[in-house]
């Protein structure tokens, strides 16, 4: 064994030279670090060495094998957490909730309040979805902390109480917690989970939701390994299923990806079902600005959705209620949102994030930056 290990170590330099660099890891579902540019400035600042260490880690020969071997070894030794992901019961991978830093609640709330104050007449709804760790606490390994998502949901509700209607979907999801509401290997809710959240949103907005019987439910994929599978390195798990809920009465929407200058007549990018990130079947993933037009409701109201990827599987349920839906992802959008609201005569705004991303990603603060 020692001889084999020594031989591998001796062969490493040759393997590194002969093995071509990869841009993307399908197993981890992320871009890999490219070889850094060498310059005197980067050498002096230490940036080159820092980036080179990342490059060597990402481009290490047979990296995918070693990542899997590491998690298998940890699992055999009884380790139930890796990369911020718990290996739970019944094949569930559950993302750990990281509480926001001190002051983060008030900063995010102030960004939303500032924007709302600059858009008088706009009816604003805020939905911060709990993640799997809150609804599947019984699936956590022994002694794993469930976190405090609900406490921070309450803090945000109180901070926004005079400015927006807070759409609390936790009770509706809790009532259905034994159903397939969250993917087992991905951090998103399933289409069923999104449907129950949609029903609660309709109740808050005074709309009549469509019943489950109004849809044809198509099992579009049964081999989905999601973000938590990639992030954790845990293997030997059963894949998830992705279902598309297709209205029995066709609505013939037009979907325009504005920055890409592309238009389609489907809310679903079916080609993504053959790729690693199958969740991108919904609205073709994340984009700066997407405009959805429903000709069946030409005189209907107009909705702006400011969101993370949790919204992607819920938005298709809303097309039967609005003539136009504008979908904005602040991580990529650099336009004038107030001007968009005025020019398009938008009536309602929905802020929809999962609670983890809402605090982990700073882009929600861009709302207040747009006012300056």
Automatic annotation (TrEMBL):
Pfam families: DHHW
Name of the protein: DHHW family protein
InterPro entries per record: DHHW (IPR025945)
């Amino acid at each position: 064994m020692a001889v084999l290990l020594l031989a591998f170590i001796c062969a490493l330099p040759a393997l590194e030279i002969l093995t071509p660099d990869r841009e993307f890891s399908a197993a981890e579902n992320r871009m890999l670090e490219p070889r850094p540019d060498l310059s005197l400035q980067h050498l002096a600042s230490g940036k080159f060495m820092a980036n080179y260490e990342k490059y060597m880690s990402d481009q290490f020969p047979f990296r995918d094998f070693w990542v899997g071997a590491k998690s298998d070894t940890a699992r055999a030794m009884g380790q139930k957490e890796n990369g911020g992901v718990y290996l739970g019961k019944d094949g569930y991978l559950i993302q750990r909730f990281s509480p926001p830093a001190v002051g983060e609640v008030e900063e995010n709330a102030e960004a939303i309040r500032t924007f709302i104050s600059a858009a008088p007449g706009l009816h604003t709804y805020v939905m911060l979805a709990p993640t799997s760790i809150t609804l599947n606490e019984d699936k956590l390994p022994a002694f794993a902390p469930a976190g405090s998502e609900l406490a921070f949901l309450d803090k945000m509700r109180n901070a926004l109480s005079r400015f927006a209607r807070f759409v609390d979907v936790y009770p509706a999801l809790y009532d259905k917690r034994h159903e397939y509401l969250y993917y087992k290997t991905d951090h998103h809710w399933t289409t069923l989970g999104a449907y129950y959240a949609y029903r609660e949103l309709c109740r808050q907005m005074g709309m009549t939701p469509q019943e489950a019987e109004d849809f044809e439910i198509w099992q579009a994929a049964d081999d989905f390994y999601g973000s938590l599978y990639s992030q954790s390195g845990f293997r030997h798990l059963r894949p998830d299923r992705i279902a598309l809920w297709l209205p029995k009465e066709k609505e013939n929407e037009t979907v325009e990806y504005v920055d890409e200058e592309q238009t389609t007549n489907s809310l679903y990018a079916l080609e993504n079902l053959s790729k690693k990130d199958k969740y991108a079947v919904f609205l073709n993933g994340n984009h700066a600005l997407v405009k959805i037009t429903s000709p069946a409701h030409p005189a209907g109201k107009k909705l702006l959705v400011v969101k993370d990827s949790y919204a992607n599987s819920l938005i298709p349920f809303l097309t039967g209620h609005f003539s136009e839906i504008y979908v904005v992802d602040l991580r990529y959008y650099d336009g004038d949102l107030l001007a968009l609201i005025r020019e398009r005569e938008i009536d309602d705004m929905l802020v929809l994030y999962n609670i983890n991303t809402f605090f982990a990603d700073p882009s929600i603060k861009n709302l207040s930056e747009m006012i300056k």
